[in-house]
Structure formats: structure tokens, C-alpha cells
Amino acid sequence: MPPSKENQIKPENWVDRYSDFLFNYTITRVNNREIAKDLISETFLAALKSMKNFKGEASERTWLVSILKRKIIDYYRRINSKKGKAEVKINYRNEGDDGDWLEQQVSNRDGVSAEDDLMNDELRTTIFDCLATLPEQQAKVFKMKTIDHYDTEAICNELNISASNLWVIIHRARKKMAECMQDKWL
Amino acid sequence: MSKREDLQQSDCEKYGIFCEKCQYDEASYWERFKLKFHLLLCGGCREYSKNNTHLSEAIRNAKLSNLTPEEQENFKQMLQNNLVEIRVNEE
């Protein structure tokens, strides 16, 4: 079956549509900006190479995330094999369970429970889904103000809008965000 | 819509904006005072104000951090270059 129209691959749009989502997904798992960026680069490259195999069964984003997940696990395998075996054995007593432990570390570092991660994943997914429904400028101003914590003045200068204009845009954006997230999260 | 409803709506729009400024801690003393007074009278705005605070909390809890425009541009360049390469190879 050929991919349906909304499930077609468009690498030109990947950065605008998914890079923030993928970046947040990665950085909560590797805790390092540069490494997160490298993993996303690797993901994009791998995705370009396997574009032909995309069957259009999942959304483009789900497909990219599935590639990214493998890259993150590979990354953990890499750093753990560098650490040396003695350390590995101290961290993990059951030698018989070799197959599982890397993945367990991925989801259980620093006392953050897998459940917290899952909830935050869902929350982030909802936020990005809702952001995607906003008109472009509203989404942009909202992100700059709320996520990047830019000063009002800096945003006004960069986008060439007045402060009162900015607050009107913020108000419209937040109204829609609140509506969109209400059922599940507010 | 009657003139009165119309007036009320534009009023709530104004207080909605005061409410946004409060979320980012940028409301002046007077704006906060006027908003508080209005919230006593207006159930709609009270509801919105409550949801708005929850929205701020949810976003704080999600601990989001975005790529800078430069970082995004680098990704775009990288994709563009590789895409050209792949298409050339295909031909």
C-alpha cells in the first residue's frame, strides 16, 4: 500500500516540525546537550537512508522516534562498554541477566522512576501536539517566552512587534493551549 | 451579541492579558490589583485564571528546553546536504 498523504516523508519539514520534540525526548535521557544533538543528527541521517522503507503505517514522528530510541540504546551500550567490566559488575549483580541491564539503566538512572519518565513523556507529547495546532507566529512567541524564557523586550526587537502586540499574541496562544490541554492535564 | 455582552467580552480580553502578565511575573501593581478585583466579579475569568496557572505548572513540570535557531539551522543544512547527495546517487 502506498503511504497515505499525511504519512508521507518530507525531510524538508523535519527540523521545523519535530526537532524540538526529539531534542526534549533525548535530553531527558542523556542529560547532555551536545550528545543529544549528535544523536538527533544520527537519527536524521539514518532516517534519510531508510526513507524507502517507511511504509506510512505510523506517523512520521513515531517513525523518527523509533529510530531515535535505537540510537539512544546504542549510545548507552557504547558508554558502558567503555567503562570497563569491573564497574559493570559492581553495578549489576546478576550475571545471568546480561541482556537486560543496559535497557534497565536507560530507564532507571538517578532514582527517576520509569513511571515519572512515562508521565513526562506523555505531558511533553501533549504540549508539542497542542503547539502544533497554533498558528506559526503564536507558537513561536509562546515558545520564546515560555520555554526559552526570553525577555519581552528581546522578543519584541527580534520579531519587530510592540509589547502590547506581544501580550495579545501570548494571550491567544495560551487560551488555545489551555483549551487543548484541559482534558488531560489541567 | 448585545452591546453589554460585547463590552464585557472586550473587558475580559483586557483582564486576560493582565492574567498572562501575572504568569510571567510582569504585571504592574495596578494591573494585579485590577485583575484581582475583576476576578471577584467574573466567574469566566476566574476559571481562565485557574487554568492558566495550571498551564504554567504543567509546562514547568515538563522541563522543556528547545534548540536555538542556529542549532536548528545547522540541522537543516545537514539534512539538505545529505538529501542532495542521496538524490544525486539515485539518478
From TrEMBL, chain A:
Keywords: DNA-binding, Sigma factor, Transcription, Transcription regulation. Residues 128-177 form the RNA polymerase sigma factor 70 region 4 type domain. SUPFAM superfamilies: Sigma2 domain of RNA polymerase sigma factors, Sigma3 and sigma4 domains of RNA polymerase sigma factors. Residues 15-78 form the RNA polymerase sigma-70 region domain. Belongs to the sigma-70 factor family. ECF subfamily. PANTHER family: RNA POLYMERASE ECF-TYPE SIGMA FACTO, RNA POLYMERASE SIGMA FACTOR HI_1459-RELATED. This is Sigma-70 family RNA polymerase sigma factor. It comes from Mesonia profundi.
